[in-house]
Prior knowledge:
- The protein has 447 residues and is mostly helical.
- The protein has helices at 7-25, 28-44, 47-57, 73-91, 98-117, 122-141, 147-169, 173-181, 205-224, 231-245, 250-270, 272-306, 312-315, 319-331, 334-338, 346-350, 356-386, 403-411, 423-434, and strands at 187-189, 194-196.
- It is built from 19 helices and 2 strands.
- The chain crosses the membrane at residues 74-91, 100-117, 123-142, 154-172, 207-225, 237-268, 274-294, 363-383, 395-413, 419-437.
Amino acid sequence: MIESKNFSVLICIISSIFVVFKIYTGSNLFLWLFFLLTSLAMLLDKQQHRIDYLLFFISWVYVIKFDISGYSLLVVLSSFYILLSILTLFLQKQGISKRLLLTYFLFAFYTVAVTIVSGGNLIAVLGFVLNYSVLFCAILTLDDKAYFRRYTYIYASGLLAASIVRLISYSIPEIDHFIESMTIVNTVKTMNSISTRFTGLDLDPNYFSLQVLIAMACLLVLFNLDGKKEKKSIVLLVILAFFGILTYSKMFIITLIVFIMMTFVVFIRNNVKTAIKFSSFIVIICGGALYFFYEKLFEIYWIRFFGSGISTDAITTGRVSSWSLFVNEILQNTKVFVLGAGFGTSFAKVKMAHTMYLSTPYYIGLIGIVLSVLYISSLYKVLRENVGIMNRPGFQILSINAIPLYIMLIANIGLDSFVMDYFPYHILLIMFALTMSKSKGTTMNER
């Protein structure tokens, strides 16, 4: 077993180069090299580092395919990770919380059963369960709070690498054509030009920007952790924010403003000097951006917010209409309200809810929501115990560590990422961030 801290980082960089070569040449040989190298590295690496490969490549999920319309190799890598985790748990004879095991099986069985009974898409729901099984295995084998720093940087680095590849692709027709062929290209038309909305290697600029926001929030937690003020976390945060702005996403801008305001409030509550430094930093960054890009950014975002009118439906890009349809579908059908409609059913195939707070009850119903909350709370309880937190006070509302959670809750008012591949990884990072609290409590090491 390889104990090197940087082994997985090196493998991820090499593997990502193979993926780029595959995109450029169209040869699946490079994708086979990616898969074999990553799988072998995952096999040889220590258990807690194996999820690094999934965290890094979760933002690459749509390009690591043999065929654009086929299944992502991340599915195979996730399955391999789960298998290795089970073998590790068995060989180490590690105990598993009965409550966690029960809530996991109830949650997994229920989502699959509802989909089958409703005549939904079995493949879709198995993929959903697979991602939440990865989360299950990750939590069970974590034993140190220090992994939060590692996982945050790995996840943010994957996003950064994906962004750089997309940025470079604008100058390389072969790569640009491949990425554009995956989905409909989102553009913004102004008086003088047509601007392409940045998506990284994702299909949708809004979902890419949500991933960026979660990474930024976790990097902020790292910056504030133990008073170390890690400069590299802020540098990475600013770079990712730049790519987020290029998505021209209304959701991103609104959530970014909330993010800045929440950070300022928490800083000024805990340390006025830090709040002043933070404010000065934001003024300098925003001032520089406005000085160089004011006309272009202002015009694009004005078009994005008000170009279609000032009605609620226009400002929300048709989301109000979608919300109304899903509210009616849920409330007028007792089965859907209580049990859920399952995954891949006819109504959801032609319309998206565009909010997690309606898509979740639509897919899994009231019972499914209760089971998911019980499962996630069990995961959080086990994580706290595994990293040594015994009797810590309750949830702190005004805390830097809670900002990733708030960002996820706010951004998903206009997005339905509960069913997305990356969402369980966001849950992992958010739960981990919540364990980083400085509040006084009893830990295993103190006992």
